[in-house]
User: Fold this.
Amino acid sequence: MRTCTFATDYRVYGNIRGNMINRALPLAQASLVGVFLFFPMKLGAANTLLALTLILTGISGNFSERWRVVRDNPIAVPALIMFALVLIGATYSSGPIETILQSVNKYSKFLFLLLAISLLGEDRWRQRCWMAFSAAMLFTLVCVFAGLWVHIPWARAATPSGWGSDHTIFKDYIAQGLLVSTFAAYGITRAFESARTYAKAVWILASLLAIVSILFLSPGRTGYVAIFAMLTVYAWTVSPKRLRLLALVASAAFVIVGLWSSPTAQSRVEAVFSEAQTQLSSKGGLNRLNGESSTGARLSMWAFSVEQIKQRPVLGSGTGSYGSLARAECGTRPDCDVISVHPHNQFLFFGVELGLVGLFVFCYYLYAAAKASARLAPPRRALLLSFLAIFVVDSLVHGALWLAVENHLFTFILALLMAEVSAVQQATRA
Assistant:
């Protein structure tokens, strides 16, 4: 009797366990959709859902199949090498342990990118992620334009405020510019792909509003460069070879006219040259690490970073070491709290901490994604390449993989695009 009861209980347990495993995968995918919805607006909610995604993925099992999909993706090897270098760099770092651990945590997104790719093999889940991201960005744009006339309680900038003022909603204006630029690229892609005229018109309108919000309602110079890079790369990619130069000139002219007609953009661009001239003419010039102006601080941080790379060119000074090196240079000045966090250049950041080896692998990471775009249909190829252009722009002037919002953007949108590459690979084999 006891044996029969035990056997019955075991079968019940097996059924429950089987049901949990079967349900865990779609729940993990649904949680990942939530990450795309929330990271442009509420990072805490996105991180909670990301942790839930990881747990549910672990419960769902089927790791060999998941690994096979990830292993064959062109970005898998450079992503794994990058994270391996981060871990190796932690063993010889001159930075404090808390900064080392913080860096390892931030760069663990190389692994989360692969996790996301493994969950996004089905087109329906990729579409849901794009819908979630689009919903977040459309809500952001509604708030941006509504802020011209009404008070938006959750806006970072003061509202209502006039045309040409700062209309930052959830994040800082640099992050918002990058997010909106990415959404504009996706909107253009959907316009190309849509069969119905009204759908094309809706997506074109959404993209135009996104571009206008950057050029006229944001002081973010990174956003100006990002939208310029995105449009030029997109136009070049989708145009026939005989029309590429014309498309390039047209897209560049579109952005230049937009910048010229925006007083906010004009003043911000002019400030770049003024601040650079002030930094170069000041005592010490580029050799004086300071944060007295945005452009001046960047120039001095870049020069400082190059010097640090020269001193330890192969493997750098270790993961999480930049801050301690910068503090040793700038001392206890108030601006040291800003310039000792990261050098506002992800390429140089990796160069300082992981040497030329780390810099080379990061470039390989970007190259692998760009090369993989050849496997996609023209609009999706343009989307991937224009997104990489935004990624490179931010990496040249900011901490693209260090700062939280950018880190999520350039991890999960790239995962979404590379998951499509995996899907194309599988369809080709079939």
In short: The radius of gyration is 23 Å. Confidence is low (pLDDT under 50) at residues 12-16.
